[in-house]
Amino acid sequence: MNTLNKTLALIALASSSAAFAATDFDTLDVDGSGAISQSEASVDAELMAKFAELDTDGNGELSKDEFSNS
Predict the structure, then answer these.
(1) How far apart (Å, rounded) are the C-alpha atoms in residues 51 and 62?
(2) Rounded to an integer, what distance in angstroms lies between the CA atom of residue 52 and that of residue 1?
(3) CA–CA separation, 28 and 30 (whole Å)
(4) Is Ribonucleoprotein among the key words of this record (predicted)?
(5) What is the helix (H) or strand (E) element at residue 61, kind and residue range?
(6) Paired strand residues for 37
(7) Start-to-end CA span in the chain (Å)
(8) DSSP 58
(9) Residues 36, 70 contacting (CB under 8 angstroms)
(10) Do β-strands 61-62 and 36-37 pair in parallel, antiparallel, or remain unpaired?
């Protein structure tokens, strides 16, 4: 059982590390809406830190143009 827990923890760590590597617009736009929501941006700590600054129109999403200013 202990080996199973370690394996599951390793899988979770690997998948979360992959999420943090997602830094291009199309990868972050998971739902394909053409914008990055705060929920979608939450996988990237750097992007979340400047989300409000980048969201120049204040609609709670980043367009491709807004994202390109990051």
Answers:
(1) 8
(2) 44
(3) 5
(4) no
(5) strand 61-62
(6) 61
(7) 45
(8) -
(9) no
(10) antiparallel
